[in-house]
Amino acid sequence: MPTIRMIAVAAAGIVALALAGCSSAAPPAPDAPQYTPASTSTLPGTWIVADTYSSPDQPFLAFERDGTWTGSDGCNDAAGTWSMDTAGVLTTTSGPQTQIYCDGTHLPLFLIDSASARFDGTDLTLVGHDGDELAKVHKRVMTEKAVARGTSVVVGLWTNVEPGRDRLLRLTMNDDGTVEGNDGCNNFTTTWRFAEDGSVSFGKLAILGRSCEGVVTWLNLASSAVLDGTTMVIRSMYGAQLGTLTYLQALPGSTADPLGGATATPVPTAAPTPTTTP
């Protein structure tokens, strides 16, 4: 009987331990991720990366409430459509775009490769189909609006004469965002706007293709420009310096003239696409 009683006591102890184990507190659950799926109310706006680049444009994505988007990797513009469901699942389309290489980040490509987007109240994170984070951007605020860098004006006539030559290089910057110029041989037209970093970004040139003997037509390769007082430093699509122009005069009706000390900052109000002359 003592043996049977000892076995019974031991069995009771085992049961008690088992019950105690079942009633012990469960380990705390890990904190939930501090983000929510992006939505059709949080996505619209212009989003930029935290890093800066030497590209003509600061890479960005801009979502419109009508379901369209535009963006740039710093050199190549892109556009398409977007839609999003309540779970943050993102569906996009994109049209063709150029493949110019320069310093920047492939935001339009990341957008196309995204399956969803997360928003933590500040940053928008694009997430791929495998769950990997592709890019993180934040919404541009009004204080980050691009402004002219190094000077107070852009609108006006900028000129230069090639050393040892009598051909005048000319660039007329209009306040409606259009440009007329001459590279020493050919007339051309294009558009201009302020890039995110405050430099001037030129659109695609419409130009005659004739050649002039002994003339180096570098001005028609302009992709961007940095302004330094009355000097405009012209840069190629790769960021290399091509040459410089000097501010000659304000346009008729202009309120700004750097030679006279004016401080107004003209902003282009339109950027019509130039028509290529056959």
From TrEMBL:
Residues 52-135, 165-231 form the DUF306 domain. Residues 269-278 have a biased composition (Pro residues). PROSITE patterns: PROKAR_LIPOPROTEIN. Residues 1-25 form the signal peptide. Residues 259-278 are annotated as: Disordered. Keywords: Signal. It comes from the Bacteria. This is DUF306 domain-containing protein. It comes from Subtercola boreus.
